[in-house]
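Continuing from the previous page of notes. For each protein in this section, the sequence appears first, followed by its structure tokens. Read the first protein now.
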Amino acid sequence: MRVLIVLPLLFSLSCGWKIFHLGKFRGPKSEVSPSRAFPDLWFDQKLDHFDPTSNTLWKQRYFVNDEFHETGGPVFLMIGGEGKADPIWMEQGMWVEYAKQFKALCFQVEHRFYGKSHPTENSSVKNLVYLSSEQALADLAYFIRQMNKKYSLPRGTQWVTFGGSYPGSLSAWMRLKYPHLVHAAVSASGPLLAVSDFSEYMRVVRDSLATHSDECVSAVAEANKQFEILLRHRIGQQRIDKLFNLCDSVVDSSKNDISNLYETLAGNFAGVVQYNKDNRQFEGAIDANITIDVICDIMTKSSIGSAVTRYAAVNDLLMKTYDQKCLDYKYENMINEFRNETLEGATGAGRQWMYQTCTEFGFFQTSTLPTQPFANHFPVDFFIQQCSDVYGPRYNKELLSNGILRTNVMYGALQLEVSRVVFVHGSIDPWHALGITKSDNNEAPAIYINGTAHCANMYPESQDDPPQLTAARHSITGLLAQWLQPSARSVRFQPV
């Protein structure tokens, strides 16, 4: 069953962990083990950093790689996101190449409530109050303080944070909130502006499909028009059942069922766009070869049949890739899955991430933009209703609005004032619409990579990398070289 998980990814919003985008779990992944063992290590962490009367502790998971470290070298911290931390990142990925060059000690810290890092016994609403970006940042601050002691690091040791997607946001926010602990930060594909109606996501999806051809975008739009016509009568509904291999007939389905179906089918395209040609094979991504070109070749191949038949063919390709027997689009089934309070339950970490979107970020990738090709059947109210149905009536539009306001006030949204932070985005990635893609501040430059998708700069180098991606990585290397020198403040960044 493909169920609505809202982001990420945001993702998901995070790179190197299980990714959530638009509503689909971006997986599954096959297990890939690093060439050497990186055992689970555990850190005693406070449950609530903002209640001085609380002394409750829990075990937070982390990994360490000291292979490249030399005395006096910096410390690199890879920030975990909305999924299980993956030890494969301790020996692969561009941050490891930077660590080799700068002789860095490397840590990866798993985010509270994800993977094996369980602050509470379950994910009940009562316990999820301890899940927030603010608590996660404080976790990292206390981790840095303790590792400085544990490893007897010299005074003035420079810590650099790394993260992609939601952890990309956390990376920038660590430098903002804890500048005395974090010397510099690399923020890849990080959404910094919290917003409930993220309609711009589908605009970028449309524009990214258009990099293949305008014909592809037109075919998607025509498919949705034909889909709407089929929904109007029973024979057409029965054809939809068969075309899209639905687990339950759309005959007599509810409005929310239909919204969920539209959103799921749009998510097929949005997910492919978000990760288009990213070099994710090393971490076991089984769908890495499904690209914009692949799905647009299907959508523009008239010999397959009508536009809606081609739309179904894209769905069939993804279902086979993910080994799905049928497509469960029923709204109530989805809600029941998210009500499961078992940590890493049926939706993986979906319940936890949805809670963060319902209380802090929004990030709801809606259909409300008039010029997007997926029809307008999943507006922002559809997503807010899920918050109420999963967590209770208190989790409504007003709570979300207050949470988004708080997030933007607390972190500064797109106006955050920082130094020694580089913001990296790709033009194909829809999340760049909520990030900093231009900057007049040489102390906090932006690198915007034409033609690349979500977190592309974080993955290992490939012979297929476009030259602009290679240039971006070289620029990041240059920035780190500047920032890890005492005279960093006097050196100006030269853009790609």
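Done with the first. The second protein uses the same format. Note its length before scrolling.
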Amino acid sequence: MHQSISPPPSKRPRTCEPSNAPTTASRSLSTSITADPNSFRVFSWNINGITPFLQNPITSYFHAPESPHHRNENTRPASLRGFLQRHNWPAVLFLQEVKISRTDTKTQDAVKAAVNTRIVSERGAGSDAKEAPQYEVYFTLPNDRHNARGLRNSGKVYGVCSIIRSDMSTSHSVRHRTVNWDREGRVSVLELCAPNNCKLALFNVYAVNGTDNPYRDPQTGTVIGTRHDRKLIFHELLMEECMQMESLGWKVLLGGDFNVAPDERDGFPKLRTWPPQHVANREDFLNRFLEEGKGLGAVDVWRMMHGEDRRYTYFPRSREWASSCDRVDYFVAGRSVWNGGMVRGCGILDSEVERGPSDHVPFWVDIGFGTGNKD
């Protein structure tokens, strides 16, 4: 039997703790400092649109308020560079749902500038410019005029962005690629080759959300099913892509928004069971990715490390904070990654502060290329 469901706290940020910690207790904000110097941190965040992170000059976000009494503790300036600095310069940041048109190079350049331009708080700390981390930015954006049109056919819909620290990219011979079966901007792959010849494929995933809306042939525009149908095909193709990588000697780690809450522990106040196709979509995902001995046979990192703990990543802005939420964002580790002890820790930054302008919160995993302790 699973323990009773508890909502997250209404105000305070929380970090990872043992699974027996009360879910309603006050918790301090997590940072990206890793205890193991041989591991690196990967963040993932569905930001629900890049615009709030770019609409003002990047330095304007870091002027302290005149009085602490005027500070809104439930908001935080939307700054990509600020996020990276605040969390101690993680090695990788996966963003989903960036909503950038493939032809909009101006916005793409603005994202690169937002990630790499030093901000006031860096200069104020007296940091040396030579020590300021730089990042490489890779986009996977939609190229499907029939299924990824966006408002007024702008093409500003879906899309993922993979950001990797430059020193990490150099030391691990990183290669970025997409997949040939996705034209909606949903899958980005970073292939890392460590000095010890360990090959790790990091998948940035924004999975299809199953609905009754039509899905059209990307070439002809003819309706060939629903978004539910496409979600099932997406699961199959992603699973096959991962299994092929593993057959070639790659270790696989997927992170992102899978648009599936795995079980009743992952929905508050209850797990979504309507429409019935949503249940079928969940079963398909579990069978293809998380059932040992079936499909990819991978593991849900959060659930494996935190047992019965109930924590959530999706907090719709149309509802009062924590009144309705789901865990649909997580990391999925291939068995060779998990059994090899490469996963060192994971966390969810589930607070209104860290949600920022999005409707999802960030989450992270620590990965080491050597053997490690999963406890």
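What the second structure shows: The two ends are 23 Å apart (CA to CA). The first strand starts at residue 39 and ends at 46. We return to this in next week's lecture.
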